Amino acid sequence: MEFPSVGAHCDAPSCQSLDFLPYRCTFCQHTFCSPHRLPADHACTNWSMESHANSVQVCPLCEQLILTPKQHDSATILKEHIEAGCSNNLHNLPKVQSIAILCALPKCNRRDRVVQTCPDCSQTFCLPHRQPSDHNCPNIEERKRAVEAEAARRQEIKDTIARKLTGSTSGAMTTTATAGSTMTAEEKQAQAKVKAEAAKAAIAEAKAKIAARTSFAKSATAPSAATTGAAAAPAPPRVKKASRVVTVMKIKKNAVGEDKIPISSRIYVYIRSPVFPQLDDKSVYVDKTWTVGRSMDKIVEWLKIAVPKNEPFDAQKRFSIFHAKELDDTPTMLNMQDRLQQITAVESGDVFFLAPADWTWSTQ
């Protein structure tokens, strides 16, 4: 045994097995294993019918609860119950008081858990009879009289305020009407004529101000004959170059490159070559931390072009990258050992030309 001091042996004569979690019988105080822990399993000598508490069982015929009192055998009680026609030894459970409340209306026997108390008669009714008119509330007439009295009181207050306001304004209106009635027809006509002339003068003054501003604006914008000497020729229409942001967005649509290049390190450029005309519609993105030589090798690999062999090596015929801001600019050759981030002139939207180092761009 690896753990002889752990657990205990079962005291049942037919078992004697070692149990690491033994049970102690509360009647005989002996130790038993799990299969023999109950008094009936180990034939407990101190266990008797007096130790049984009241218990219940279900009758297989009527399916009702049968009460087995102390010091009685459950099988005997069940046999007596069946012989008596399932009428004796029944276990009557105490009645549970319902929380549903009966409606106070005499003709309604409805019980609900959700009820409402009438504020007039203070009685509880179900939801269908909760309104005073539904349960013939005896105090409904008093409620109506109180509501009517309150409405009459408010209306009286409104009428009093209206009478006071009408009395204070009627005097002023009467004075104005009297003053207007004393004016003759000739005086009224003269007064209307004066108002019309004043309105015409104001309109004429406004038109004069607008004409003066318009003439001043024309004189300021017209070219001077002394400075030009002749009629100014129409300026040629400006040719607006595409915005750098728009150019980069167009390149990104079809640009070729490696996905592992961080977005913050990418430089998007057009690819052109006088040796390979099929590259005129190509675009790539390279890592700005790369050298010009590595970028050249990657572009050749991505676009799958065959660079002419330079054997024996001749620096003048080495395939190189030429840089230009626009397609119509003259390209300049980049040093193969320089890193792109060190060349301040290189940025997204530029053009890379692939050509031999001795290529003469003026003769293209």
From TrEMBL:
Keyword hit for Metal-binding: yes
Any one cellular-component term (Gene Ontology): cytoplasm
InterPro entries named in the record: AN1-like_Znf, UBL_ZFAND1-like, Znf_AN1
Entry keyword RNA-binding: no
Domain AN1-type: 4-52, 97-145
A GO MF label: zinc ion binding
Alphabetical UniProt keywords: Metal-binding, Zinc, Zinc-finger
SUPFAM superfamilies in UniProt: AN1-like Zinc finger (SSF118310)
Domain of life: Eukaryota
PANTHER family associated with the record: ARSENITE INDUCUBLE RNA ASSOCIATED PROTEIN AIP-1-RELATED, ZINC FINGER AN1-TYPE CONTAINING 2A-RELATED
UniProt name for this protein: AN1-type domain-containing protein
